[in-house]
C-alpha cells in the first residue's frame, strides 16, 4: 500500500482548520499548512492562523517559515511539503494538508514544470505596462490567454502575473497547459483529497463574521506594526486579501467602514474563485460544510473507512 496523505481543501471560511484538527486527533496526524500567506511571519490575524493554544497539541508545519520580504513560491512549497511528508511517514504520523491555496496543492499533488528562464527585456516591458495602467491590465491580458491562471492569481499580484505572461510569450503555451508534463514530488504516495463546499449565503455570513473578528482582533494594529518594523508595503504578503485593503485604508484610500465592506466583498469573490479552481481538480471528494459540524466529520470518517483508513491511536489500513 502506498503511504497516505490526506488533504482538507476548500474556500475561505469553510471550516477547514476545525476539520483538520479533528481528523488529526483521531488519526494520529499532523497538520501541514497549505495557505500561501500563512507561510510568512507576522501575518497572523488576516490569515486566521490558529494560535498555539488553539492547536490542541497537534503539530503544525510550514507556518511562519518565511520573512515578509522573501518570495516563497509554489515550487518552494512543493519541495518543503514533500520533505515534511517524508518525515511524518518515517515517524508513522499521518500528513494532513489543510488550506485553500489551490496552486500550492496542485504543485504538490501534480508537480510543476521547470518553465522557460527569465527574460529580463520582456519582464521590463510588462512592468512598464503595470506601472502605466496598473497590474489589473496584466490580469485582464492573462485572463484572455490563460483563464485558469487568472482565476488563481490576484489582480494586483504583479510578480505572479508577469511570470504567467512570460511563460506564455516565451513558450507559446499557457502556464496551466504545462501541468500535464509534470511529475509530483509525492508520486509514490496516495493522496486523498477532501473539499468543503457551502451555499453562497452561508459563506457570505461566515465571511462577514470573520472580517468583524479580524478587526476586533487588531488587524489594523498588526499592519501598522509590520509597516513600522520596515516591512515594505510592496512585500508579497501585503498583496493578499485583507492586508492589501488595510494598507490602502491606512494610506487614506477609503474609510474603515468602506474597507470592511470591501474585504467582505472580495472574500466572497475569492471563495467563488476557489470553488471554481477546486472543482477542476481531479479525484476530490466533496463535502457539505462547514467543517466543524459533527455531520461533516462523520461523513469524512465514513469516506475514509471506505478507503481502508481507520480511526484510532495510529492511522492504519489493511496490509500496513
Question: What is the fold's blueprint, element by element?
Answer:
Layout: E1 4-9, H1 16-27, E2 29-33, E3 60-61, H2 74-90, E4 94-98, H3 102-109, H4 120-133, H5 135-145, H6 147-152, H7 158-171, E5 190-197, H8 200-216, H9 219-228, H10 243-250, H11 256-279, E6 284-288, H12 294-306
Parallel strand pairs: 1-4, 1-5, 2-3, 2-4, 5-6
Radius of gyration: 20 Å
Uncertain residue ranges:
316-320
Strand content: 5-15%
How far the N terminus sits from the C terminus, by CA atoms, comes to 7 Å
CATH superfamily (homologous) name of the largest domain = P-loop containing nucleotide triphosphate hydrolases
Number of helices: 12
CATH topology of the largest domain, by name, is Rossmann fold
Helix-strand topology string = EHEEHEHHHHHEHHHHEH
What spatial order of strands do you see in the largest sheet?
A: 3-2-4-1-5-6
What does this structure look like?
With 320 residues, the protein is α/β, with parallel strands linked by helices. The chain folds into two domains: 4-112 and 182-306, P-loop containing nucleotide triphosphate hydrolases (Rossmann fold, 3-Layer(aba) Sandwich); 120-178, Histone, subunit A. It is 48% helix and 10% strand. The chain contains twelve helices and six strands. The chain has helices spanning 16-27, 74-90, 102-109, 120-133, 135-145, 147-152, 158-171, 200-216, 219-228, 243-250, 256-279, 294-306, and strands at residues 4-9, 29-33, 60-61, 94-98, 190-197, 284-288. A six-stranded parallel β-sheet has the order 3-2-4-1-5-6, with helices on both faces. Helix 4 packs across helix 7 and helix 8 (200-216) packs across helix 11. The longest helix has 24 residues, at 256-279. The chain is globular, with a radius of gyration of 20 Å. The model is unreliable at 316-320 (pLDDT under 50).
Amino acid at each position: 500500500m502506498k503511504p497516505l496523505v490526506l488533504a482538507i481543501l476548500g474556500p475561505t471560511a469553510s471550516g477547514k482548520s476545525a476539520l483538520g484538527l479533528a481528523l488529526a486527533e483521531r488519526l494520529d496526524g499532523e497538520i501541514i499548512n497549505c495557505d500561501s500567506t500563512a507561510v510568512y511571519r507576522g501575518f497572523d490575524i488576516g490569515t486566521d492562523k490558529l494560535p498555539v493554544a488553539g492547536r490542541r497539541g497537534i503539530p503544525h508545519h510550514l507556518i511562519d517559515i518565511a520573512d515578509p520580504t522573501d518570495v516563497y513560491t509554489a515550487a518552494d512549497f512543493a519541495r518543503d511539503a514533500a520533505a515534511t511528508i517524508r518525515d511524518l511517514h518515517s515517524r508513522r504520523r499521518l500528513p494532513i494538508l489543510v488550506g485553500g491555496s489551490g496552486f500550492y496543492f496542485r504543485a504538490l499533488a501534480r508537480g510543476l514544470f521547470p518553465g522557460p528562464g527569465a527574460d529580463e527585456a520582456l519582464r521590463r516591458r510588462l512592468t512598464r505596462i503595470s506601472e502605466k495602467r496598473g497590474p489589473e491590465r496584466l490580469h485582464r491580458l492573462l485572463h484572455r490567454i490563460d483563464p485558469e491562471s487568472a482565476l488563481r492569481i490576484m489582480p494586483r499580484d504583479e510578480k505572479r502575473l508577469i511570470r504567467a505572461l512570460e511563460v506564455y510569450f516565451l513558450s507559446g503555451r499557457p502556464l496551466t497547459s504545462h501541468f500535464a508534463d509534470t511529475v509530483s514530488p509525492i508520486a509514490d504516495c496516495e493522496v486523498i483529497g477532501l473539499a468543503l463546499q457551502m451555499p453562497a449565503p452561508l459563506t457570505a455570513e461566515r465571511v462577514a463574521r470573520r472580517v468583524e473578528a479580524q478587526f476586533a482582533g487588531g488587524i489594523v494594529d498588526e499592519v501598522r506594526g509590520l509597516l513600522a518594523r520596515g516591512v515594505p508595503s510592496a512585500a508579497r504578503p501585503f498583496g493578499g486579501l485583507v492586508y492589501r485593503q488595510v494598507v490602502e485604508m491606512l494610506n487614506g484610500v477609503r474609510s474603515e467602514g468602506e474597507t470592511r465592506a470591501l474585504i467582505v466583498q472580495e472574500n466572497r469573490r475569492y471563495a467563488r474563485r476557489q470553488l471554481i479552481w477546486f472543482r477542476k481538480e481531479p479525484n476530490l471528494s466533496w463535502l457539505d460544510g462547514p467543517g466543524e459540524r459533527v455531520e461533516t466529520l462523520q461523513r469524512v470518517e465514513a469516506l475514509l473507512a471506505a478507503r481502508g483508513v481507520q480511526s484510532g491511536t495510529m492511522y492504519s489500513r489493511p496490509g500496513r
